[in-house]
Amino acid sequence: MATYIQNVKFPAFLLVLIVSVPLAVAAPGSDNKPNIVLVLMDNFGYGEIGVYGGGVLRGAPTPRIDSIAAEGFQLTNFNVEAECTPSRTSLMTGRYGIRARQRPDGPPRGIWWGITEWEITLAEMLSDAGYATGMFGKWHLGDTEGRFPTDQGFDEWYGIPNSSDRAFWPDSDSWQEGAHPDLEFTYVVSSKRGETPKKLEVYGREKRKTIDREITDHAIDFIKRKAKTRQPFFAYLPYTQTHEPVDAHPDFKGTTGNGSFADVLAQTDAYVGELLDTIDELGLKDNTIFIFTSDNGREGITRSFGFTGPWRGSMFSPYEGSLRVPFLIRWPGKIPAKQVSNDIVHLTDLFPTLANFVGGDIPQDRILDGVDQSDFFMGKSDKSARESIVIYIGNVLFGVKWRNWKMLIKEIDEDSYAIRTMAYPSIYNLLIDPKEEVPEGFYLDDTWVDAPLWQVIEDHLASIENDPGAPGP
Ligand SMILES: [Ca+2]
Ligand SMILES: [Ca+2]
Predict the structure, then answer these.
(1) How many angstroms separate the alpha carbon of residue 294 from the centre of ligand 1?
(2) Is the pTM of this model over 0.70?
(3) Following CA atoms 380, 382, 386, 391 in sequence, which dihedral angle do they give, to the nearest 10 degrees?
(4) Structurally, how many domains does the chain consist of?
(5) Is 84 marked active-site?
């Protein structure tokens, strides 16, 4: 960490654990608890879908995804982490990714990434609250024994353990068999709770075309099976698109006439529509929380075709195009329809918020970074329960957002990915300069923002100092 940061003097006060009293939302008896369907896209920018300025502008209308906004709450300042694994850690644990990987004595490579068994996942919390839990899609939080989804609270899983990067390998002309003992093609796998995942098929470019179709089919089957019981369910769909390679299903390839990305956008909208129709036809609409979001902004690769809307940059950067993604939530009768807010919300907030919606337990023995947004989502408060987030790339702290202000103590060169440590932090007013084009070098009217911005960093670093790190592996 830079000298600049090390010199910060920590305030004497201690961090405050984010612990909330569960709301009495769910009626007694698990059969009255709301079902949860959570769709998580991969490397999917803020600007892809219609209600965020995409859709037809991107060559494919997205009426089904847009309908979630019409029937629910749309956030325009929903923040994630800058890459897959820390972001999925935030979602699953309610803790910033840095907390899962900060232990300095872990193995240097291979094992020490993702989350260890010690972490209490969203699926474990919901499982303990009486939920059936199914995951259909990409995990990317650990691929060794004891760390698969079905070791971490999911009753069943169909999908891929790691990144879709590996879908290139089987089709590569330059693949070298036996190059390293850890190297093997990724397989589509399935497992039940506690089982070793069964390898089904090699995940190559052909499989890439059909896997999101299969994820949808498996999830619909799960939802229909669970609807016959009185047990509430959590269906988690981390789709593999629109991570590269973006390969549309044969049913959609060429259908938009606007290229593979638009075809996949149309495909995704149709699949989300099938999920919504399933919920509605089963009579579960009013008793199901439906969420659509993404793990991080668009791909960083040149010509990868993703779109961040008005925001600068792409994933692996500290800019808004990396951190701000679509977030739509529908729960008819509980969450008011047609709501839009630009207040800051973070992916870590889903854990405590969903825990409060369902009467689940929030861990008391560890630091949670997420805050309970249930009052905000349900219209009982017109303000988000948080005003700030911290920004990391890997283990490096880049800066902070507070209200409409942003401070970067490091910037990144978007061509070379070189990190620049700023002698004077870059300050951006995101309402005046949404694209982060010109740091406010002479913000003489507004130097007061230093105080709240640095306070967020100081509080966060104090909490990290006091955090022993996740035990494991
Ligand atoms: Ca991702
Ligand atoms: Ca666990």
Answers:
(1) 8
(2) yes
(3) 130
(4) 2
(5) yes
